[in-house]
Design goal:
The complex is a heterodimer of chains A (218) and B (501). By secondary structure, chain A is mostly helical. Chain A contains 7 helices and 1 strand, in the order E-H-H-H-H-H-H-H. The relative contact order of chain A is 0.21. In chain B, helix 1 runs antiparallel to helix 5, helix 3 packs antiparallel against helix 4 and helix 5 packs across helix 6. In chain B, a hairpin with a 2-residue loop joins strand 11 and strand 12. In chain B, the strands form 2 sheets. Chain B has an 8-stranded mixed sheet. In chain B, strands 2-3-4-5 form a 4-stranded antiparallel sheet. Chain B is elongated and about 90 Å long. Chain B has 2 domains: 215 residues, Growth Hormone, Chain: A (Up-down Bundle), CATH 1.20.1250; 211 residues, 3-Layer(aba) Sandwich (Rossmann fold), CATH 3.40.50.150. The chains are: A mainly alpha (218), B alpha/beta (501). The interface between A and B is large, with 75 and 82 residues. Strand 1 of chain A pairs antiparallel with strand 1 of chain B.
């Protein structure tokens, strides 16, 4: 029988603080922080590549940003489904998701430029369609990460609010670091391609950490 | 409760991302369009969201009535939002580095309060089936992202077109408070009695807007005369300052964008650069201008004797209202062959696969501003080169960037410098006084007359132009080629957003 978790909040008894997490979980939390760093690096870098293909008029910018968000949203549903489909392998799935993001990252400059050059001159509908097509794979994967880890840590904290609060804090703090770094520092030293490659390295490190943590007994 | 929580999650995403759009608009305007603004706002915003999630987690651990807590938090968030425009303008007046630290704290604070609701909404809206929460939690998260998608769409495309920046700030604040009130009414039914008064209070607050934009405008460049025109639309903010001598000053996004002057002798805006093109090209039939600005360049180009078609690309349609106020450039906009096109110049040029232009003139903004790479990069210049007719000329304003010259040199075989103007072509260009005077004499001025080359002042001007026009020689060892990839003038060689500035 389904239980509305609001009731759990009222009792708040079985929740456990993040401070007592064992080493493997700290590793996962650190990995999720880095996942946020790489996600924002990709977002800023991909947007710049897309603007070069589709223009920087308000319509183009809005469509591109909206496609990014929509991909994340659909990805969140996918993540929720994956979490329930593989209830004992959340970390492994998360690791493979990060690995896939990194693999897309490697190919992303060519994918964006290739599709952009082919489809950029065909009006706003085609712009929306092609932006969505380009961003769908990586944003789906990015959007899936939070529900996967919520499902993993929920088994530990037994409170959705606590789990979401902890994971969202870690991931968003990483995203903030990524936004500051990319927007204020990184482009002074690296090209867009260099920034993307740095994000790929981070994804592979995150994937490795998640897969290592998944081998530990839960 | 499930649907209420999802709606709450949607609302928080919608309001948060709406406010982020407004912060980016405000900070871009305040910095004159520095490219680092986006990263600064986004980073500060995300820090606020992150710590808001921690606070929300605490409430989930300790509070028995999360709907009540959420309502109180959102009402406070709405009140804070209403005060933000005024506080932000005061923060911008602080000395460095306090102003950026203060603004980062303000941006974070506004995000912090709303994101407290993020864990709370998930907590309220998630249904666990045994130990499985994935699908259920993802639906609340999806609602949040859907709101985050709709926020920029509605605010960026609709609200900022219908209202000013300051009015939209107030609207987002009122909406935030309204969502908070909805939470409180849900928990405390007697509060329903207050609801009829809410629209009246909202309308009263909406009428009391702090004039953010005009305050910032008055603070900067006040030596250039009084502000006599301000236009806000979803594309940006334009304004002009009156000037008795030399023509009104035009600003786009709070950065100098030209002066309204087509007179070669007045030349307060370097309009001689456009006249130079008439002297250089024997018969430019088809002309493309990217960047309308004050309309002065269009005013002169429209009078070129052989001009059959002049396409003028501008990204912000608001410039149409701006130039309507000045007869000398307004007439050019409706002259035969002249076409104003509201689009991204680079995108439009890429679409014109079969078009060939005798002149492509780019009224480039300052090289350090966001997205200038799109018009200064090697990729764009190669595109422009492919769109030139045989003997065609490509010219643009380098705004003093040595990298812009170096990039033109990497693309075109023949590159010339004229003040900060770059003139490039596939063919060698030459200029002598007699040819220049003969060609300029045929240029029709906006008021119907032609350039009077018998006037000694005009003669001296032409002689000066001929003397200054020279093949480009590298003047800076650091000059590098700008590419879409390296964003050179926006970041490495640009004007950075420094804490100590």
């Amino acid at each position: 029988m389904d239980v509305v978790r609001e009731n759990t909040a009222h009792s708040a008894g079985p929740t456990q603080k993040a401070g007592s997490a064992p080493r493997a979980e700290w590793l996962v939390l650190a990995a999720f922080f880095l996942s946020g760093v790489s996600a924002l690096t990709y977002q800023v870098a991909w947007q710049r590549l897309l603007y070069a293909e589709f223009g920087v008029d308000l319509e183009s910018i809005t469509i591109i940003v909206s496609c990014f968000m929509l991909g994340l949203g659909i990805g969140s549903l996918l993540g929720g489904w994956l979490a329930d489909r593989f209830p004992t392998r959340h970390l492994r799935v998360f690791g493979f998701v990060e690995l896939s993001i990194g693999l897309f990252g490697i190919a992303s400059p060519w994918v964006i430029m290739g599709i952009g050059e082919t489809l950029s001159h065909a009006g706003p509908v085609m712009l929306a369609t092609s932006s969505f097509a380009i961003l769908l794979v990586p944003t789906l994967l990015m959007g899936a990460t939070l529900p996967l880890l919520i499902a993993h840590f929920y088994g530990r904290y037994h409170s959705v609010g606590v789990t979401v609060g902890t994971l969202y804090f870690v991931n968003t703090l990483g995203a903030a670091a990524g936004a500051y770094a990319t927007g204020l520092v990184v482009f002074n030293y690296l090209t867009i391609g260099g920034s993307i490659r740095a994000a790929v390295v981070i994804n592979f490190a995150v994937a490795t950490a998640a897969l290592l943590a998944s081998r530990r007994p839960q | 409760m499930i649907w209420f929580a999802r709606l709450l999650s949607f609302s928080v995403g919608f309001l948060s991302l709406s406010q982020e759009i407004l912060w980016v608009r405000l900070m871009s305007f305040a910095t004159g369009g520095l490219p680092q603004t986006f990263g600064f706002v986004l980073g500060s915003f995300l820090i606020g969201i992150a710590f808001g999630a921690v606070a929300g987690r605490r409430f989930c651990e300790r509070s028995a009535d999360l709907v009540h807590v959420g309502g109180i938090v959102l009402v406070i968030a709405g009140l804070v939002d209403l005060a933000l425009p005024w506080v932000a303008v005061q923060a911008l007046a602080l000395p460095a580095p306090t102003h950026l630290i203060g603004l980062a704290a303000l941006i974070a604070a506004s995000a912090f309060l709303k994101s407290i609701l993020f864990p709370i909404a998930h907590h309220l809206g998630t249904v666990a089936s045994g130990d499985k929460v994935g699908v259920s939690v993802s639906r609340v998260y999806f609602a949040n992202i859907l709101g985050s998608t709709m926020g920029p769409l509605v605010t960026g495309m609709v609200l900022l077109q219908a209202f000013s920046l300051e009015a939209t700030f107030v609207a987002v604040g009122l909406l935030t408070a309204a969502v908070g009130l909805a939470c409180l009414v849900r928990r405390h039914q007697p509060l329903k009695l207050l609801l009829p008064a809410a629209p009246v209070a909202a309308a009263a607050v909406f009428a009391l807007q702090f004039p953010v934009v005009t305050t910032l405008i008055q603070r900067d460049s006040s030596e250039n005369g009084p502000v006599n025109f301000v236009l806000q639309n979803r594309h940006g903010i334009l304004h002009t300052r009156a000037s008795v001598v030399g023509g009104d000053w035009v600003y786009g996004g709070n950065t100098y964008d030209g002066r309204v002057n087509t007179d070669l002798l007045v030349d307060s805006n370097g309009i001689r650069r456009v006249y130079l093109l008439a002297a250089l090209h024997p018969s430019p039939d088809r002309i493309l201008q990217i960047g309308l600005g004050s309309g002065s360049w269009m005013g002169v180009l429209a009078g070129f004797p052989s001009m059959d078609a002049l396409d003028v690309l501008e990204i912000n349609p608001g410039y149409s209202q701006l130039i309507d106020r000045y007869p000398e450039v307004r007439a050019a906009a409706t002259a035969p062959g002249v076409r104003l096109i509201w689009d991204d110049g680079r995108k439009w040029l890429a679409e014109q696969e079969n078009a060939r232009f005798d002149l492509i003139v780019v009224n480039t903004t300052f090289y350090w501003r966001a997205y200038t790479t799109m018009l200064l990069s090697r990729e764009f210049m190669e595109l422009a080169r492919h769109r030139l007719a045989d003997g065609g000329i490509y010219a643009f304003n380098s705004t003093g960037s040595p990298d812009a010259y170096a990039t033109a040199r990497a693309v075109f075989p023949h590159v010339y410098a004229f003040d900060t103007f770059v003139v490039a072509s596939n063919r060698e260009l030459s200029l002598d006084f007699a040819t220049a005077a003969r060609r300029l004499a045929r240029v029709r001025l906006p008021h119907g007359r032609h350039v009077n080359v018998d006037d000694p002042r005009v003669t001296a001007k032409i002689a000066s132009m001929v003397a200054k026009f020279r093949p480009y020689e590298a003047t800076s060892a650091d000059a590098q080629v700008i590419t879409d990839e390296n964003l050179l003038t926006e970041y490495r060689h640009g004007t950075r957003l420094r804490w100590w500035d």
